[in-house]
Amino acid sequence: MPLGLSAPLNIFRESTINNSFSIERLDNRAMNSDFPGRLSYHRILLVEKGRGSITVDGGTFEVHGEEVFLLAKGQIYIFKASSVVTGYVICFGDCFWEKAPASASNCKAVLFNNAAVNQCLQPEENELQELQLLFQALLREYEAPAYNNQVDAMAAYLKIIMIKLANVRMTEEATFDSQDYVLYRKFLDLLSAQYKQLHEVSDYAEMLGVAPRRLSDLCRRCCRNSAKELITGQIVAEAKRALQFSASPVKEIAYLLNFSSPEQFSHFFKKNTHFSPASYRSQFISIGQ
Asked: Is the model's pLDDT at 207 over the cut of 50?
């Protein structure tokens, strides 16, 4: 259920981060917040120990420990009161990521282009230990005195972390052919770029040169969701953001998301959220905050 349905909420936005990158050690850090936050940067939260819960775009996850939360730029999150975390948090912007070698771009796309699928990863003990060492090394680099190419070094560490996290994502699922995984990555890239214009599985299947059924099957094998569910999730998330952070009429939002009419958009939105666009807007957030 969306947060705060009984009353409008304020939303705070992240302040600008120097060089679009930061990493911080959290030691029994109280994660309480009075208002939900809208992310201006991608975030990787490695939880060694913790308690409480975090709600991201309406989905709630318990915080236990030995897990990794991935939050994409633009998502809205809030920690439950009394939530406490020991671990690390990395924040990075797209401009910082561009400094990372291009070979890691697919890993970032798989993890963050449809963040809802990868919101919480649960690495094996050996994977967690390896990630902890990488986070420790990156933190030392971040806190070291400035020197030439320091940003490039940090970007290289981030690339390695992203590759390791992508491998956690792969090993969580049943074994599948690597060619299917490459195709799945290509689908996520297309979806990230085209979801406002293209809403049908057949559209993406045609662009990828495969049958719609095969595309849906491989999506289920890779992330437990069908291709249609992934498309719908992207559209719903964008619609929520438009309703939350703009005063644009529902008619205009429907047009921007390529629905044939406001009525079609309203039916789609209510079917997937159980709220009409107008009700969601008025109950979830105070416009203009």
From this structure: yes
